[in-house]
Amino acid sequence: MRNTTRPPLSDDDKQEFGQLLLLDRLMQYENALADDREVAATTSELEAQEKPLKGKFFRSDEEDYELEQIQQDLIEARQARKETTQELKDAEPNHLSIALIEQDESGLEPFLKHMEQRGVIHVDEQNCFASTEQGDKVYEQLVEQLDSYVTHFDVYAYVDLEEGGFADPETDLLEDNRWSDLRVAVAEHKGVDPYRVVFLAMLSAEVFFENPEWRFDLAVGSLFDELEATVQDQIAVEELGYEDDEGEVSGEDVIADIIEQGSVLAKERFQARQEAEEQAVMPDEQVITTTYYW
Fold it and tell me: Is 0.70 surpassed by the pTM of this model?
């Protein structure tokens, strides 16, 4: 049983995290809408290119080849349009209207009101909430924090304290009891807010949205109960200490050694991801320490 008590999740953090979740969902809809419009425009452009060529009774070899290429591109564009249309339909519940909030989800009004006062959202021509230019910046910063979390902290989610190794998510059985989650301990050692790290972890895995009624949970104040319990239950740095034949080894020494190894592995994993995704620059870990929103 843990013998270390951490401070509870503050009301300010609950407000910030709640507003970031709402912004994330609003942006999911807006990004889906932008993608659908872009693909629709591409499809229309290709159809406009196809029409005069297709209408010709006599075509040169070059025109036949051009028409064939356009029609192949059209097949791909129309398939992409089906996908973006479905994604937009799936994201539609995140397009929050004033009427919906007033009638069914009034508990979200304090969050949305504060977001509007901060210039993060506004009411669009459809009487729905939408991100502003400032909101787009906040969202970009949130994405940067998520990327930084994955790069610098995710590696510590499964650590074998007996063997001093790290799990490979692609090959190891992660349900094995030998793994310890040290993300909170690492965050505390580095001076990073552990609640923010766990919030980013849960957001990255979309844990908050697994329950379709997550907005109700946010409104009544229970959405972050799991987050708070997770932080409170995690191993503390001092609990990592042990004694062997050579004497006592402090928890600080243990976590420092784990971080040294984990940093090397995190860099290797980033480089592998960089090759696959062509990501140019390793994200700065310090972006996690900054509260951009307030």
Answer: yes
